[in-house]
TrEMBL record:
Source superkingdom: Bacteria
Domain called ATPase AAA-3: residue spans: 48-181
Gene3D superfamilies: Magnesium chelatase subunit I, C-Terminal domain (1.10.8.80), P-loop containing nucleotide triphosphate hydrolases (3.40.50.300)
Pfam families in the record: AAA_3, AAA_lid_2
PANTHER family in the record: MAGNESIUM-CHELATASE SUBUNIT CHLD, MOXR FAMILY PROTEIN
Domain ChlI/MoxR AAA lid, residue spans: 253-324
Name assigned to this protein: MoxR family ATPase
Length: 334
């Protein structure tokens, strides 16, 4: 990364490097441009993402490719009902030395990495889920009374299967709130699926190269926080989030009628960071209200819940967000 004191030059240079990173990711991830953009937005914002999609949509491949391109070591944990917190965090074992002396040695768990894929996080018990989510919030773990810091940057990309719910432990609302964005991973188009078939069933597969190092990524995350945000964008974020609170004084009619609860201040914080990161990805110097509209579903959907009556009527959270955006005259950028 350039050390130029000129913020405009730094943003322009970062935009070029990020375009290079997206090209490298595209060598291994066919299509899914929006998913890749949202995953990069999450990491540039310094947050964690919840990937929601059925199995087989290259979520694991995406995480490993992001780790390679961004210069981050990465681990994967397959969550199961019998997974214990120590399986994630690590544990102390008693070792006997050559002289017969005994001492406890800490064996690090897979959470001691920079990019962690938590596969099917809702299959683990609430106790195990909370161990991971505490680390996400504090970037540290406590094992046997010892406080241990995690590597920085530290990001979790967790996955959930939206269809199969038997034998799962849905994440409570307070824990969902710790994910900066929810990223919906849909099926590829016919042309994309054709390209996937040709690219992944041959004798060789394309490999991605590193574009950033962990230290350079931290610089990018700091640059995101330094980007200016116009008053119009700030007001759009505030109005959007406050309109989605059914019991609030600024509640939109759709929210008041259909929502059990709305997004808290973390939703506004997530949008403030994410719109900057989205602008940086596009090589722009500052975010716009179009960025707010484009990121609103990813930042808000997992922080809201429908009433029982609204669910019975077939309403969706996305439709509520769309109505609020329409009344605010915000349109997502194409």
């Amino acid at each position: 990364m350039s050390e130029s004191p000129d913020p405009v030059a730094r943003i322009e240079a970062a935009g070029l490097r990020l375009a290079e990173a997206r090209a490298e990711i595209g060598k291994r991830i066919v299509g899914q441009e929006e998913v890749v953009a949202l995953a990069l937005t999450t990491i540039l914002s310094g947050g964690h993402a919840l990937l929601v999609g059925v199995p087989g949509l290259a979520k694991t491949r995406l995480v490993s490719t992001l780790g390679t391109v961004l210069g981050l070591d990465n681990n994967r944990i397959q969550f199961t009902p019998d997974l214990m917190p120590a399986d994630i965090l690590g544990s102390e074992v008693l070792e006997t030395g050559a002289d017969g002396s005994r001492a406890f040695k800490f064996i690090e768990g897979p959470i001691f990495t920079r990019l962690l894929m938590a596969d099917e996080i809702n299959r683990a018990s609430p106790r195990t889920q909370s161990a991971l989510l505490q680390a996400m919030q504090e970037t540290a773990v406590t094992v046997a009374g010892q406080h241990r810091d995690l590597a920085r940057p530290f990001h979790v990309l967790a996955t959930q299967n939206p269809i199969e719910q038997e034998g799962t432990y849905p994440l409570p609302e307070a824990q969902l709130d710790r994910f900066l964005l929810q990223i919906d991973v849909d099926y590829p188009s016919r042309d994309e699926e054709r390209e996937i078939l040709l690219a992944t069933t041959g004798a060789e597969e394309a490999e991605a190269a590193a574009v950033f190092s962990a230290a350079e990524l931290i610089e990018l995350q700091q640059l995101v926080r330094q980007m200016p945000v116009g008053e119009r964008v700030v007001e759009a974020i505030l109005t959007l989030v406050r309109s989605a609170r059914p019991d609030g004084p600024e509640a939109h009619a759709a929210a008041a009628e259909r929502l059990a609860f709305g997004p808290g201040p973390r939703a506004a914080q997530a949008l403030m960071l994410a719109v900057r990161a989205r602008a940086l990805l596009a090589g722009r110097l500052a975010p716009s209200v179009e960025d707010v509209a484009a990121l609103a579903p990813a930042a808000m959907e997992h922080r809201m819940a429908l009433t029982f009556a609204a669910r019975a009527e077939g309403a969706t959270i996305r439709s509520v967000i769309d109505e609020i955006l329409a009344d605010q005259a915000l349109e997502a950028a194409a």
